[in-house]
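Worked example

This section walks through a single chain of length 416. The input is the sequence exactly as stored; nothing has been trimmed or padded.
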Amino acid sequence: MTWHGPTFRISDGQRIDGAWCLVWRRHDLVDEYVVAHLFVYADGKITYGGHDSTDLAGLERLLVTGKITLDPPEARERRERRERSERRDGAPKRSRWESRYPEPRTDEGFVLEVADEISRLAGRPTTADRCLDAVRAYTTEPTAERRLLLRDAYLAVPAHRRVYLLGDMDRQDRPLRMLLTDLGQAVEGDGPLATEDMHRDALAYLTDLTEYVERAQEGRAVPYADDPVGAPVPPVVLDEAVYPRGWPAEPGRFVLRNDYDAPFTYAGRSYPTVFHAYWALSAAGPADHDRILAAATAREARELGGGAARRAGWPGERLAVMAALLRAKFDQHPRLAEVLLATGEAAIVYTGISEGPFWRDEGPRGGRNWTGRLLELVRSELRRAQSGQTPAERTAATALRAATRIGSQTGENGGA
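Given that input, the structure is written out below as tokens.
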């Protein structure tokens, strides 16, 4: 069974995470089976066929009554015919010990698998998690009591999922099967007789595996050590807005837009908006630069800039130029910087139609949202400056800003 996701539903204003798979549902009106989506959610709700909902107990009844099946009817009929033929011809029974395939998925096993998926979505341990915990406990202290607990945990895993427990494509779950078979008994009923040497080898394998997993987890923790913790913060969406009567007096998030009137100085020149500066600096000739700079509105600056020839190498420079322009805007307007800082740690989604997909977010259609990402960068720099720097850091930052201004001035004069 392949689970797909992530997906979710909203319940009482809360997001409930989910996943889905495909099943076959009997259509009562035509008495035929059709493919249907089965959705399961972290709170235990299960929906199928678009509108019908149930729970684990209800899913079990649907499977028993044939309202839902796991295989198309023709596949089920072929399997039943093959099994009848094998019994009639006296074909030898397939060895469970030698088989390299998972056990057949049954209705009961599927219900257990769904219960595991619900636990995973809710952040609770699955049967596989509990089995691996039992493996670690047994390898730490291999007592008879812990071996019985390990056997119970192993058998609680859906039968068709057990071969994947140890993540070993070659040995699969054989070490567990050998260890959990009593001495003198045939493993899986048709395999070798369990011996003390076999139990020791299985224990050694599981001990090595446990140590390897622990080392891997410790190694994985290093590069992820500074990942955000806790629930994700909803993004801040900067929608494009038009104010025919002028910008509101009280600054809101609209001041973070590139067309907001906030004159600033960059590389020795004054620009009314980020739009004016960006498009003027992109122009190949000084005449175009000055004409864009003199545009009456940000919209006019964008239109003039879009129609002018780009200077050589502009695509490789534009991110650095935009980052520098945003820094200049918020460095020189502390009140606007406060608005940016007030967005906290949220992702900034910059939308609209006045800039290309490279700079804005386009939702499901794409967009690279570079303006939003650069605003997050500048926000982080502002917060770092607020927290205080050492004298050496302040000296280095001042030198870097000076070098950036000199480089920008040179690039502007050379390009213009």
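What to look for: The first strand starts at residue 4 and ends at 11.
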